[in-house]
Amino acid sequence: MATIVTLEKAVKLLMTEGIIVLPTDTVCGVSASLGCPEAIRKLYRIKERPLDQATALLIGSIKDIPALSPVTFSTEIKCLLDRCWPGGLTIIVPRRFDSLYDQGLDLVCDGAANVGLRIPDHPVTLEVIRALGSPLVASSANLRGKPAPGSTAELEPELKYLADGIIEGTCSAGVSSTVIDLTASPVKILREGFLTRSMLRKYLPDLA
Description:
transferase, L-threonylcarbamoyladenylate synthase, tRNA processing, 10-stranded mixed sheet
């Protein structure tokens, strides 16, 4: 059974293959360190998530991107990210195949050429990522077929049992992030969430 832990304890658990549930700006996340492949496999088992289903990464800064992706951004995309990051926007970009995180990326991308990245707008999540020194593999903290919780108080008992620690807190939005594919031309919206299509079109008029 997971216990309530401090931020410092959560980081120690993440460094040693642990699974942590924490609040984010969108919905509560169940998370593992990208540098811990066994923890990523455990996260997939907990979520009953097929290994061929990609999982996004939470990063602490736009400066973290070069270690994960060789992408270069157009002026339009830079303006979009300046406005929407940190926040509820996940971008799909090409992944690196020569990264220090290759094992973790192989798992979260299932060998695919792309990876999802987001900078969360939540002080606790950002502090965890920065203290950990690694991106977080993060998925909504719900079991398959169940709604994503808006606070750690709403977690399913089974998830509490399977995780290693919980950082208490409430999510800012309670709505999943919007996902856009920057590898598509024109840029394509894959999931509408916190940011609506009309909001994104202010920056990307040709958004598909």
